[in-house]
Amino acid sequence: MNAAGIQDLGFGIRAGLCGLCVLLAPQSREWPVTFVDVADRAGLREPSIYGGVDRKRFIIETNGAGVAFVDYDNDGWIDALVLNGTRLKDNARENQTYPPGKAPTARLYRNNRDGTFTDVTARAGLTASGWASSVCAGDYDNDGALDLFVTSFGQNVLYRNRGDGRFEDVTARAGLPVGGTRWGSGCTFVDYDRDGRADLFVANYLRFDLQSAPEIGNGPNCVWKGVPVNCGPKGLPTDTNLLFHNNGDGTFTDVSARSGIARVTGRYAMTATAADMDGDGWLDIYIACDSTASILYRNNHDGTFTDTAVESGVAYSENGAPQAGMGLAVGDFNGDGLLDLFKTHFADDIPALYRNLGKGLFDETAAAAGLGVLNRYVEWGAGMPDLDNDGRPDVVYVTGNVYPEVEAVLKQYPHRGPRIVFRNLNGSRFEDVTARSGPGATAAHSSRGAAFGDFDNDGDVDVLVFNMNEPPSLLRNDYAGPNHWISVKLEGTTSNRAALGAAVRVTAGGRTQAQTVLSQSSYYSHDDLRLHFGLGEATVADKIQITWPSGREETLSGVAAGRVVSIKEGASRK
Amino acid sequence: MTATAFLLWAAALHAQPPVAPRPAAATVPAVLADARKLIDAGQPSAAIDKLRALDDRANPLVAELLGVAYYHANDAPRAIAELTPIVQRLEPGSLERNEAVQVLGLSHFLAGHLAESIPYLEEIRPLMPDDMKLAYALGMAYAQTRQPAKARESFARTFRLAPDSAAAHLLTGQMMNRLELEDLAEAELTHAIRMDPKLPEAHYVLAQIAIFRSRFDEALTLLRSELAINPAHAMALYRIGDVYSQQLQWDAAIAALQQSLWINPYFSGPYILLGKAYSKTNQPAAAEDMLRKAIAYDPNNKSAHYLLAQLLQQTGRSEEAKREFAIAEKLQDVR
Question: Between B184, B216, B269, which is nearest A19 by CB?
Answer without folding.
Answer: B216
